[in-house]
């Protein structure tokens, strides 16, 4: 039974989907005003891994994640470049796909844009006003936080604490327009400085940030969704306000499980990443230098709620692990060629045991660290099998498939090798084998080095020498 930590109750709970066999997930996506930073990638990878685990265990996952494409940051960045908001946001939507595809982050089932849903947003806000949960004030529309029962419950904040904070955070003009400092904007009236506006019953303006997620989550996934996810910094105010708006509108529970991923720190001093600290690292830049599979594995193997320290050492460790896992897979794959066509009961049993260990770990709130131990033990089984005097091809084939399926949950792809032939390389390998047979190790090493400089890696296995390109 899968158990997930629900931020709402601060407890691990049994996971029960609303509809048997289906998981409806909504994950807050990035504001598309720049290349995504490593914190955005962490969130995307954390929830992609969770999605992949559901799919591994047979669920169909409807995964909705938005792009915020109207927001003060976009308006500011577009102005600085002298281009339209649309032009700027379209550029970084495209960049998002280019940067996340190499990390094996699956595309969302639906990737809605806030600006494509302005009419839906207006209808939603009209309903909140009609129900008395929201009010118009000088062209803005605000949500009456105090009217919503349990406001702040998700982030364990009391309205009185929030009131003190709210008065410090907002400017005097906005404070004067609100009935209460804790109220928040669902619609912002036009500002003479800002060109991007839409007509509404409250005059020209644009949506507040939080409203888009309430509108798009309920539109694509229904009034109650199974899982709502996002970075832990979103619990307040963003998710707190999403809950108030959605539940005021539908009268139903918005999300059954609230999952929040931890932060990323950059460098060894564990500083929280921020632009002001000068360690704002974009994925766009990282993947020019770091193998995206290594970055993916590094991030996917930290449990989603835990912080990740993005350091050189962590990347190096992930690179070593990735190499070890790939080598285990390739060695057994190569060995199968000379395998027997009978089943190996012991190997079948070992495959089952490691699969169960993997599932048990992931069922415990996606404990990827324990899941990695199961995978590492499984890799040892593959290595031992590859070295055995006799190998069962059918059992080893199943072992490879199960091993690859586990790695796929973590976003790492090891596919069967396409048979590559190169007579000149085969000739050198044959010459090296002959040199080794006559104990001419100097010549054998020379050949290995010669191949290495042309990007060919030579592996000595029980079934003979195999080579592959780096
Ligand atoms: Zn959101």
Automatic annotation (TrEMBL):
A motif ('HIGH' region) lies at residues 30-40. InterPro entries: Cys-tRNA-ligase (IPR015803), Cys-tRNA-synt_Ia_DALR (IPR015273), Cys-tRNA/MSH_ligase (IPR024909), CysS_C (IPR056411), Rossmann-like_a/b/a_fold (IPR014729), tRNA-synt_1_cat_dom (IPR032678), tRNAsynth_Ia_anticodon-bd (IPR009080). Its main location: cytoplasm. Keywords: Aminoacyl-tRNA synthetase, ATP-binding, Cytoplasm, Ligase, Metal-binding, Nucleotide-binding, Protein biosynthesis, Zinc. Its EC number is 6.1.1.16. It catalyses: tRNA(Cys) + L-cysteine + ATP = L-cysteinyl-tRNA(Cys) + AMP + diphosphate. A motif ('KMSKS' region) lies at residues 272-276. Its cofactor is Zn(2+). Binds 1 zinc ion per subunit. GO terms for biological process: cysteinyl-tRNA aminoacylation. Zn(2+) binds at residues 28, 213, 238, 242. SMART domains: DALR_2 (SM00840). GO terms for molecular function: ATP binding; cysteine-tRNA ligase activity; zinc ion binding. Pfam families: CysS_C (PF23493), DALR_2 (PF09190), tRNA-synt_1e (PF01406). ATP binds at residue 275. It is found in: Cytoplasm. GO terms for cellular component: cytosol. It is an enzyme of class 6 (ligase). Residues 357-421 form the Cysteinyl-tRNA synthetase class Ia DALR domain. Belongs to the class-I aminoacyl-tRNA synthetase family. Monomer. PANTHER family: CYSTEINE--TRNA LIGASE, CYTOPLASMIC, CYSTEINYL-TRNA SYNTHETASE. This is Cysteine--tRNA ligase. It comes from Periweissella cryptocerci. The gene is cysS.
């Amino acid at each position: 039974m899968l158990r997930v930590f629900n931020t709402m109750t601060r407890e691990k709970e049994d996971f029960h989907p609303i509809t048997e066999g289906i998981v409806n997930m909504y994950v807050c996506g990035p504001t598309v005003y720049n290349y995504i930073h490593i914190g955005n990638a962490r969130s995307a990878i954390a929830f992609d891994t969770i999605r992949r685990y559901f799919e591994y265990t047979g669920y169909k996952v409807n995964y909705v994640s938005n792009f915020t494409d109207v927001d003060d940051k976009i308006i500011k960045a577009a102005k600085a470049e002298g281009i339209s908001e649309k032009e700027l946001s379209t550029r970084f939507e495209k960049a998002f796909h280019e940067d996340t595809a190499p990390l094996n982050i699956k595309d969302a089932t639906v990737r809605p844009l806030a600006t494509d849903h302005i009419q839906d947003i207006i209808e939603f806000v009209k309903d909140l006003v009609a129900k008395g949960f929201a009010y118009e004030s000088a062209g803005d529309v605000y949500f009456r936080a105090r009217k919503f029962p349990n406001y702040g419950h998700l982030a364990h904040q009391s309205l009185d604490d929030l009131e003190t904070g709210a008065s410090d955070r907002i400017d005097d003009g906005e404070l004067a327009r609100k009935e209460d400092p804790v109220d928040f904007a669902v619609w912002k009236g036009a500002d003479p400085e800002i060109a991007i506006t839409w007509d509404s019953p409250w005059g020209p303006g644009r949506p507040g940030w939080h409203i888009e997620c309430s509108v798009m989550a309920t539109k694509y996934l229904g009034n109650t969704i199974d899982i709502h996810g996002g970075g832990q910094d979103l619990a307040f105010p963003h998710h707190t306000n999403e809950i108030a708006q959605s539940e005021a509108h539908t009268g139903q529970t918005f999300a059954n499980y609230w999952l929040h991923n931890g932060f990323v720190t950059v460098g060894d001093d564990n500083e929280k990443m921020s632009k002001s600290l000068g360690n704002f690292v974009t994925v766009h830049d990282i993947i020019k230098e770091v193998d995206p599979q290594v970055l993916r594995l590094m991030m996917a193997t930290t449990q989603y709620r835990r912080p990740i320290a993005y350091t050189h050492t962590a990347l190096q460790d992930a690179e070593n692990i990735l190499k070890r896992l790939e080598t285990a897979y390739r060695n057994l794959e190569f060995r199968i060629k000379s395998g027997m066509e009978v089943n190996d009961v012991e190997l079948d049993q070992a495959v089952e045991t490691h699969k169960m260990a993997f599932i048990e770990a992931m069922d415990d709130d996606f404990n990827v660290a324990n899941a990695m131990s199961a995978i590492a033990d499984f890799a040892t089984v593959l290595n031992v099998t590859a070295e055995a005097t006799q190998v069962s091809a059918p059992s080893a084939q199943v072992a490879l498939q199960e091993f690859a399926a586990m790695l796929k949950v973590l976003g790492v792809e090891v596919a069967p090798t396409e048979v590559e032939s190169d007579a000149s390389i085969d000739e050198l390998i044959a010459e090296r084998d002959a040199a080794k047979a006559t104990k001419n190790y100097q010549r054998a090493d020379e050949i290995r080095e010669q191949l290495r400089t042309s990007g060919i890696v030579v592996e000595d296995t029980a079934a003979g020498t195999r080579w592959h390109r780096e």
